[in-house]
Structure formats: structure tokens, C-alpha cells
Write a structure and sequence with these properties.
The chain is of the alpha+beta class and about 50 residues long. A three-stranded antiparallel sheet has the order 2-1-3, with no helix packed on it. The protein is globular and about 25 Å long. It is built from one helix and three strands.
Length: about 50
């Protein structure tokens, strides 16, 4: 599964189908990094961010 999405002004992913298909729900800890102008988001037990 892969997808492309915009991020809104509050930092939320506009495309929810990809997020749901990954099984990420509210409270999922996420690691978000930028590489070459692309945001890479992955579930990570020590992630600093939480899914909404």
C-alpha cells in the first residue's frame, strides 16, 4: 500500500483511506521525518506524535 496526501494547516493528513488501511487510529504514536522534501510517516512505539 502506498499513497500520496496533502497535509493541512493543522498538520493532519487529508487522505484518510491510507491511514485507515494501515490500522492507525487515535493514539497511534508516529515518527514523522522529512527527507528530500518528502514527509515520511510511520508508526513507531517511541514516536513523538500521535494519530488523531
Amino acid at each position: 500500500m502506498y499513497g500520496l496526501s496533502t497535509v493541512d494547516a493543522r498538520g493532519r493528513l487529508a487522505e484518510r483511506v491510507v491511514v485507515r488501511s494501515l490500522g492507525w487510529g487515535p493514539g497511534t504514536r508516529l515518527d514523522i521525518r522529512e527527507r528530500g522534501g518528502v514527509l515520511i510517516v510511520r508508526a513507531e512505539a517511541r514516536g513523538r506524535y500521535y494519530g488523531q
